[in-house]
Amino acid sequence: MVQILDATLREGEQTPGVYFDIHIKMAITNLLNRIGIDYIEAGHPAVSDEITDAVHRIATMNTHAKIGAHARTLTADIDQALHCQVHFLGIFYCVSNGRLHEIHQQPLTHAINNIAETIRYARQQKPDLIIRYTLEDTVRTDFENVITAAQAAVEAGADIIDASILGLGERAGIVDLAVKVLNEVKLVGRKGRVVDEDELRYIVNMCK
Known about the structure:
This protein has two domains: 1-70, Rossmann fold (3-Layer(aba) Sandwich), CATH 3.40.50; 87-208, TIM Barrel, CATH 3.20.20.70. 46% of the residues lie in helices and 16% in strands. The chain is built from eight helices and eight strands. The chain has helices at residues 22-34, 49-59, 75-83, 97-104, 108-125, 143-156, 177-187, 197-207; strands spanning 5-6, 39-43, 66-71, 88-94, 130-136, 160-161, 163-164, 175-176. Helix 1 packs parallel to helix 2 (49-59), helix 3 packs parallel to helix 5 and helix 5 (108-125) runs parallel beside helix 6 (143-156). The chain starts with a strand and ends with a helix. Mean pLDDT is 82; it is low at 185-193.
């Protein structure tokens, strides 16, 4: 079964010159819900009080679509998002060596523990929460770091890991679909549809 996640209200609003008032966001949510979208990303509550209010109002609109929010690997972000009564949570953290050393100032092992602990914390606060983990800036990240972080997220309870073929993506890319799937199948096991490895290799080669 294919499900659709719409990121207009979060990712879309990051486009230069694009801004949605709360009443516009709610109208967009209604339209997306009416056409049958499964998941709607409503925003990152920690960014501003206005976005927090919008996410909360959207999450309590009684839609069939599940409403989600973004959060950093901070318990304060998790608490703020869950206070908005969202149904799923997208947690993001970059594990590139440059970001780890220059900004986070911590080794990979500490970053992995932070990611896993945050996911476990979110799960404890809301057991039925759908959790997605997104690795940022994978084009400039050693793949060993990428796979280690993604694996830790799955083991900690993440339901979804963002991926794309060859790690392509706007900004600086996300997890390579082929590498992620093959590692997940071998190391953890995967729920849901069986992945045809030959077809996966075919589509990767087709996109090179």
